[in-house]
Every structure is written in structure tokens, then in C-alpha cells.
Design goal:
mainly alpha, 67 residues, elongated
Length: 67
């Protein structure tokens, strides 16, 4: 599970970098730029969710160790 969350985070980071190059800063809310911004936000959400998942798994392992 740890490896999967790391792989998904790296893929999301790659999507952020790729879509950042597609944003037209003169008109960021028109055409393909809005799609790139939406994808950047979605990728950031994936990174946050994977960080939460890794943290919750770490807490779960510590709680199981105390029982």
C-alpha cells in the first residue's frame, strides 16, 4: 500500500508539472487553460489524500503495536 501511494503521488506530481506548462497565463480561464487548472487542482487533491492515507496507516500500525 505504501508503494502504491508513493507511485500515485509521483504520477500526480508529473501531471501537475505537465499541466502547468499548458496554462496560458494571459487568459487562464479560457479554453485548454481551464482544463489544465482543473487537472492541477485534482492532482493536488490526490497528493493530499495519499498523504492522509499514509499517515492513517502509520497511526493504525502504532495502535496495533500497543495491543
Amino acid at each position: 500500500m505504501k508503494i502504491l501511494s508513493i507511485i500515485l503521488s509521483v504520477i500526480a506530481l508529473g501531471l501537475i508539472i505537465f499541466n502547468f506548462t499548458k496554462v496560458d497565463f494571459n487568459a487562464p480561464f479560457e479554453g485548454d487553460s481551464i482544463i489544465a487548472i482543473i487537472t492541477i487542482v485534482a492532482s493536488l487533491c490526490v497528493i493530499v489524500m495519499m498523504a492522509i492515507l499514509r499517515t492513517s496507516k502509520r497511526i493504525e500500525d502504532q495502535v496495533k503495536g500497543k495491543k
